[in-house]
């Protein structure tokens, strides 16, 4: 019986744990005689084992389906499964006839109980590590994507601000020649203003002075002639 190998040590069921899933127990018989096995569990309501009991011929291997029926609701992330399986093997040196292994098991156990080989198999919920790692990975990926998007938005915003700053500079440069051109009409306006207020140019002033002098000579000449006539008349 030392040549009987039972694997694995742990059955790991992955999420979603509310759904049915299947794992396998392998029983290899390396001895030169047939063996019988039986599988027991601490939580029969949550598992279905096929076959639950059977014979393994010499040199053969049998895979046993251990079907997890699913939980009513998902367990907490830190939940630990305490379910266990016990696989017991006994020698089956003779033909059991029409009896099933389950029916003949008590007889085999009574006769070959001291040669029994058993192995305990634990059950583990895979979500404790897998889900936490998956959620953490997704969170980090989402955060990286968000940072990258924010960086792109910031670059676009900075580019738009630079364009807005360049546009006013160009507008100011275009307005400067216009401002220079608008200054020259002020001179003309000043000249017009000076003309309206009596500030006549120097040439106009000279002509007006000569005209004023000519107009003053006529009255003087009349006064002189009148004085000569009076003198001649009385003297």
UniProtKB/TrEMBL annotation:
Name of the gene: KNAG0C03350
Single biological process term from Gene Ontology: endoplasmic reticulum inheritance
GO molecular function per UniProt: FFAT motif binding; phosphatidylinositol binding
Official protein name in the record: MSP domain-containing protein
Family statement drawn from the similarity comment of this UniProt entry: Belongs to the VAMP-associated protein (VAP) (TC 9.B.17) family.
Subcellular location: Membrane
InterPro entries linked: Ig-like_fold, MSP_dom, PapD-like_sf, VAP
Record's bilayer topology term: Single-pass type IV membrane protein
Biased composition (Basic and acidic residues): 140-151, 168-193
Organism annotation: Huiozyma naganishii (strain ATCC MYA-139 / BCRC 22969 / CBS 8797 / KCTC 17520 / NBRC 10181 / NCYC 3082 / Yp74L-3) (Yeast)
